[in-house]
Amino acid sequence: MASSSEDDRKDDVYLSSGGEDIRRTFTDHLYCSLKDHQFDVFMYGDEYDDKLEESNGAIPEHLIQAIERSKVAVVVISRGYLESLWCLEELVKIMECRKTLGQLFFPIFYDVDPFDVRIQSGSFAQAFQKYEQKINEEKVHLWRKALREAALSLSDGLNLRKTDGHEGNFIRNVISQITGKLSIITSLEVPTNLVGIDSRVRDISKHLDVGGSNDIRTIGILGMCGLGKTTVAKAIFNKHHHNFDGASFLQNVREKKLIDLQEQLLSDILKAAYIGVSCIDEGTKEIEQRLGNRRVLVVIDDLDSVEQIDALDIKPDSFGLGSRIIMTSRNKHLLKILNVDKICPLPAMSEREALELLSWHAFRKNDPDEEYVELSRKAVGYCGGLPLALEVLGFYLRTKSTIEWETVLDKWNRSQPYREIHKRLEISYDGLTDDDVKAIFLDISCFFTGMNKDHVMTVLDGCQFYPEIGIRELQDQCLVTVDKEGNLMMHDLIQGMGREIVHAESPYNPGKRSRLWHNEDITDVLTKQSGTEDIEGLTLDMQESDECSFSSELFRNMQSLRLLKLNNIKLTGSYHNLSKELRWLCWHGFPLEVIPKDFDQPNLVAIDLSYSKLIRVWEDSDLLLEKLKLLNLSHSPNLAKTPDFSRLPNLEEVILNDCESLSEVHSSIGNLERLTLVNLEGCKNLKDLPLNFFNSKSIETLILNSRSRFENLAEGLGKSCQKTADGTPIRQILCLTWPVPSPDKGGGGGRQVVDSRHSMITSNPYENESRTKSR
Question: pLDDT-derived band of residue 597, with 50, 70 and 90 as boundaries?
Answer without folding.
Answer: confident
